[in-house]
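Protocol step 6 of 9: fold each sequence in the batch and record its structure tokens directly after the sequence line. For illustration, a two-sequence batch is reproduced in full.

Sequence one:
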Amino acid sequence: MRKISVLFKESIKEFKSVRCITFTAMLGAISVVLGSLRIDVTPFLRISFSFLPNRFVFYLFGPAVGGIYGAAMDILTFIIKPSGAFHPGITFNAFITGVIYGLVLYKKPATIKRIFIADIIQMIIVNLLLQTYWLTGLTGLSFFALFPPRALKALIMLPIETLLFYSAVKAVEATGIKKILSGRGM
């Protein structure tokens, strides 16, 4: 439990960095653009690549920044391009997603195993359980009617998202950008 509180304290300190604020804003803009290019399979099933810039924020700046960024991006995306009703539970999911990835990845080596673990935790808790629950209230459909197609999508996207993010992290690390962002390259 102490390690979690230390991670949160260190992540909160990131808010004092202009580098953190500007980079999260830049990645937020990229996320909005990628989110507008999403594919709507059904009204309740969407595929988007906006997860990539979001996960970089969670990975680089931790659970506190990640949670607030996730919630802020959910609200901003809804304002810019609304799709359906606004639901605070879905904003809570975005917050929890940032916290999960921040706790698992912040200040740790980004191995494929660690990324996969973060993806599994987020997929089960947020995508399959919480998101499906919130959608039952928004759609009037039962949890068990929504769950199977969402589980299938999650199983298909899990390895794709894991490999894409791992590849992106390794590419960023190879360029030296991560060192600059963490303040060790200047």
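Sequence two, same batch, same settings:
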Amino acid sequence: MAKKLKKRVKMDTGFKVENIVASANLKVELDLFNIAMKLDNVEYEPEQFPGAIMRLKDIGTTLLLFKNGKVICSGAKTKKQIGQSIRRAADVLQRFVTHV
């Protein structure tokens, strides 16, 4: 019979926040085609993915923009970066709101 080894493994319980993902709803309809055509930091390939991808390099985040006004922010390491990213997106996207 094999003896079980009882060895305690030391675990480092420290951690570092690498990525926070947050969602927001701008409560407007967005014209993703127009946004991608006019903004250099936005890609939109609807045959690949239904959302547009907005990269905010200065903040270090990426936002997924959806036609229904929902936004997913990823890449943030702090709540402050999330707030900055969502506010920036809302300000920039204001002129692309589809009025029904």
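Proceed to step 7 once all outputs are recorded. Observation for sequence two: The domain at 29-75 is CATH 3.30.310.10 (TATA-Binding Protein).
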